[in-house]
Write a structure and sequence with these properties.
Elements: H1 9-12, H2 16-26, E1 31-32, H3 33-40, H4 44-56, E2 60-61, E3 67-70, H5 76-79, E4 88-94, H6 104-114, E5 121-127, H7 128-133, E6 142-146, H8 148-151, H9 154-171, E7 173-177, H10 183-196, E8 200-203, E9 210-214, H11 216-223
Parallel strand pairs: 4-5, 4-7, 5-6, 7-8
Antiparallel strand pairs: 1-3, 2-3, 8-9
Helix pairs in contact: 9-10
Length: about 230
């Protein structure tokens, strides 16, 4: 697997005081030891223990002595934070035009906006041939392009998107959309969302609503937290 090792979230959240720290860090880009002590009310020795515990499980990091931040802001900024203040990135798929008058990406972004989520960055994985179908629409997205043999291979799709996905998860909230493109691409996005515990959506064919395949409540249940 490219990139850094995935955090062990399930072990990290087994102790309530660790969850308190994650809740506090989800609301800040970075926090000092004294800020976390004030926010949580945990005394020095216990606070050090839980910070070191979360570092050991790969959930937080300390790049500057006495200052802490989440390794990946997703999923905790989504579970505990304020999504309106978060930098939101969207990762979607785009298939051949066929009978579609509008790109599924446009439909998904509009549906997310109706739910109060407006991504600043939009990354769309597609094939060179599919992109050619939409050339006249001049869609203003960041493209992740695949050859035809890549977009029908689950592992190839995952590796194409993984590095950028990790980068965006470090910066803020990520929403993954597994609608459209090929079945292997859909499976790849579903597996990535499961691996990274990222919110996952699917756009209904009527284009008026989305289904949260991995929602905030889903993530809370997976982690066993309230």
């Amino acid at each position: 697997m490219a990139g850094i090792a995935l955090p062990d979230y399930r072990e990290a959240v087994k102790q309530p005081r660790s969850v308190m720290l994650l809740r506090a860090l989800a609301k800040k880009d970075e926090a000092s030891f004294s800020e976390l002590k004030k926010e949580t009310g945990i005394n020095d020795a216990v606070l050090y223990h839980h910070l070191n515990r979360l570092i050991r499980f790969g959930v937080i990091k300390s790049e500057v002595k006495g200052s802490y931040r989440l390794v990946y802001r997703t999923p905790f900024c989504y579970i505990f934070g304020d999504t309106e203040r978060e930098k939101v990135s969207y990762f979607g798929l785009l298939g051949r035009r066929a009978a579609h008058e509008e790109a599924e990406t446009q439909v998904a972004l509009r549906a997310l906006k109706d739910e109060g989520i407006e991504p600043e960055l939009v990354y769309v994985l597609t094939s060179f041939d599919a992109l050619k179908d939409w050339e006249e629409d001049r869609l203003p997205y960041q493209w992740i392009l695949c050859y035809e043999d890549e977009i029908v291979d689950v592992d190839s799709v995952k590796e194409k998107v993984r590095r950028q996905l990790e980068s965006c998860m470090m910066q803020g909230m990520v929403v993954i959309d597994c609608t459209s493109a090929t079945k292997p691409a859909t499976i790849a996005y579903y597996e990535l969302a499961q691996e990274y515990m990222a919110p996952l959506i699917y756009v209904y064919e009527d284009g008026r609503s989305i289904k949260w395949l991995i929602s905030k409540d889903t993530l809370k249940r997976k982690l066993g937290i309230g």
